[in-house]
Amino acid sequence: MTRRTEWPDGPGRPERPDRPDSGAPSLPRAEQGPPPGPEEQARAICLRLLTGTPRTRKQLADALRTRGIPDDVAQEVLSRFEGVGLIDDAAFAEAWVESRHHSRGLARRALARELRTKGVDPALIDEAVGQLDADQEERTARELVERKLRATRDLDREKRIRRLAGMLARKGYSEGLALRVVRRALEEEGEDPDLLEHHLPDL
Fold first, then answer.
1. How is residue 20 annotated by DSSP?
2. What CA–CA distances, in Å, run from 179 to 132, 158, 169?
3. What's the pLDDT tens digit per position in 122-140?
4. pLDDT by residue (tens digit) across 69-92?
5. Which of 28, 84, 182, 201 has its CA 20 to 30 A from that of 144?
6. CA dist 33 to 28, 30, 37, 42, 139, Å?
């Protein structure tokens, strides 16, 4: 005869007596203590947002305002965070410039624009983008064009120039630098300088 499998607490098992409740009885909401105040809420929000990702003071202030934290409470909490180094807009700006220039090839103008949208003080922006000198910026522009050259070889000369210079412009490079770098890259590739003169003045 096949023995019937019996699951715990399933059919075929005698009912168990009620178990004593092993946990403490839940307290009514009114007896659990008062809800956290605005200052405690602000600290919790800032700590959560700063976990794993640096933020500027303005980014955190905007987040606190969105969550209904009074401005005076928010400013006091943010100042405390600054005092202990949890908020550091100068370090944020320097790291942003280093990362975005090397990963995306962004020029100083584009980097400054991004930092302004994050609320970084203009003096701190100037100091951060000052890490990139003109020579470094031009080297990066040349690397960007060299990587793009092969993908434009099927285009006519004018379209190639437009495509390459436009790519640099979108990354914040000035028109003069962009055209100079594109001209040099095309000449090194074998383009006739006299033909390029028609499209690119000698910059």
1. P
2. 20, 12, 10
3. 999 999 999 999 999 999 9
4. 999 999 999 999 999 999 999 999
5. 201
6. 10, 7, 12, 19, 62
